[in-house]
């Protein structure tokens, strides 16, 4: 049973074809720079020759058509025809309050995704375009929506509500939604599988650290809290996002710099965070290289990044009444030994300490105290494929 997984972004589509029987990746690739005459199709089969094509690809419809053609190509294709695809799983960023789990896509679901565009204007329109393109080029093949927000929909109301006039929630659904849910769900399930622990009895903190970063507190198998909020801007210091700030700073900047709401929003999302503090870099690898050279602003950015993570770990441990498993995932979480070391330093009061040798080796379990500290590569595509297969098989 083969499942096609699509992640449609504003100017790109990432894809994988996964054989769900053994969970192997048959082929993976991407279409980048959609909307230009120098768009790139990257196609990497598990067996066979990789392909790179540069040509004009003006929209997601054309990009999807090229992906399907590549999959069924006589020379480099991995399937004989589209009927070998049992289903298509789509990453959808925002499901609002409507979706607490993955669902089979029908007209009502598409309308709900459309209705959530105001909550995720940079993501949901393109997720929807991917769904519509598959209807055209993969007719009759069932599609499933897997929502970034779904995992966090079981948070208690006192956790997800903001202390604003309740009318704003009633009218506009302004509340904490959280993101990276598919990643948090995958790594927490993977952690208990490795440790042979019951998922429903663990208190876990999952740190998804990359250019966009978030933390989730997972108690007894349910997301109890998460750092991202109404949008992905809230929470941790990130590559280009500021994370938590005093909201009064926003009108202050607008008044003194004489800039618009649009511009200050752009500044907080694209020119802040690690990039804004360091003045030049948002890649943690470059930040850590510059620290070795004595760059004080890069050190400041790194210290702010790790301190905010540590502060959230402390808060979530207190809110859950303890901690059994701490997980690092995402590009930074999986690869930065220095970030993991700095985050875990002085957390011995929570039973958290790491073995330097295991940390340097990027071992799966790097702890030396009672709280398990783990490094687990995320695999959102596999989780999407699993959900898709499960829904199709249940029909």
**Which spans have pLDDT < 50 for at least 5 consecutive residues?**
none
What's the structural domain tally?
2
Q: How far apart, in Å, are the first and last alpha carbons?
A: 15 Å
Bulk shape:
globular
How many β-strands, per DSSP? Answer: 13
Hey, roughly how much beta strand do the residues contain? 15-25%
Largest sheet: number of strands, sense, barrel closure: 8 strands, mixed
Which percent bin holds the helix content?
A: 25-40%
Structural class by SSE content: alpha/beta
CATH domain class name of the largest domain:
Alpha Beta
- Overall pLDDT: 96
* H-E order: EEEEEHEEHHEHHHEEEHHHHHEHHHEH
Please report the number of helical segments.
Answer: 15
Oligomeric state of the chains present here: single chain
How big is the Rg? Answer: 22 Å
CATH architecture of the largest domain: 2-Layer Sandwich
Here the CATH topology of the largest domain equals Nucleotidyltransferase, domain 5
CATH superfamily of the largest domain: ATPase, nucleotide binding domain
Main β-sheet, spatial strand arrangement: 5-4-3-2-1-6-8-7
């Amino acid at each position: 049973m083969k499942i096609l997984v699509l992640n449609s972004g504003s100017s790109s589509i990432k894809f994988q074809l996964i054989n769900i029987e053994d969970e192997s990746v048959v082929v993976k690739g991407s279409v980048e720079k959609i909307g230009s005459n120098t768009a790139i199709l990257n196609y990497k089969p598990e067996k066979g020759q990789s392909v790179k094509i540069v040509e004009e690809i003006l929209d997601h419809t054309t990009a999807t058509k090229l992906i399907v053609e590549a999959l069924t190509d006589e020379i480099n294709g991995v399937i004989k025809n589209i009927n070998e695809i049992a289903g298509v799983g789509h990453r959808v960023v925002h499901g609002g309050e409507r979706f607490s789990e993955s669902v089979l896509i029908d007209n009502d679901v598409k309308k709900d995704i459309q209705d959530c565009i105001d909550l995720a204007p940079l993501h949901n329109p393109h997720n929807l375009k991917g769904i519509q393109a598959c209807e055209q080029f993969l007719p009759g093949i069932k599609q499933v929506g897997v929502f970034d927000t779904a995992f966090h929909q079981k948070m208690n109301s006192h956790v997800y509500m903001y202390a604003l006039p309740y009318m704003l929630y009633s009218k506009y659904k302004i509340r904490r939604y959280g993101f990276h849910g598919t990643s948090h769900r995958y790594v927490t399930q993977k952690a208990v599988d490795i440790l042979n622990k019951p998922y429903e009895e663990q208190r876990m903190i999952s740190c998804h650290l990359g250019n966009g970063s978030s933390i989730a507190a997972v108690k007894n198998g349910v997301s109890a809290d998460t750092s991202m909020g109404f949008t992905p801007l809230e929470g941790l210091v990130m590559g280009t996002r500021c994370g938590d700030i005093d909201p009064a700073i926003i009108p202050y900047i607008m008044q003194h710099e004489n800039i618009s709401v649009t511009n200050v929003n752009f500044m907080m999302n694209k020119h802040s965070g690690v990039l804004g503090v360091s003045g030049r870099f948002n890649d943690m690898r470059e930040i850590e290289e510059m620290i070795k050279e004595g760059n004080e602003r890069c050190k400041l950015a790194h210290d702010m990044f790790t301190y905010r993570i540590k502060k959230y770990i402390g808060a979530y441990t207190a809110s859950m009444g303890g901690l059994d498993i701490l997980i690092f995932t995402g590009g930074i979480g999986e690869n930065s030994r220095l970030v993991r070391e700095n985050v875990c330093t002085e957390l011995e009061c929570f039973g958290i300490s790491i073995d330097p040798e295991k940390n340097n080796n990027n071992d799966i379990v790097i702890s030396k105290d009672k709280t398990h500290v783990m490094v687990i590569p995320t695999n959102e595509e596999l989780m999407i494929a699993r959900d898709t297969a499960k829904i199709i098989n249940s029909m």
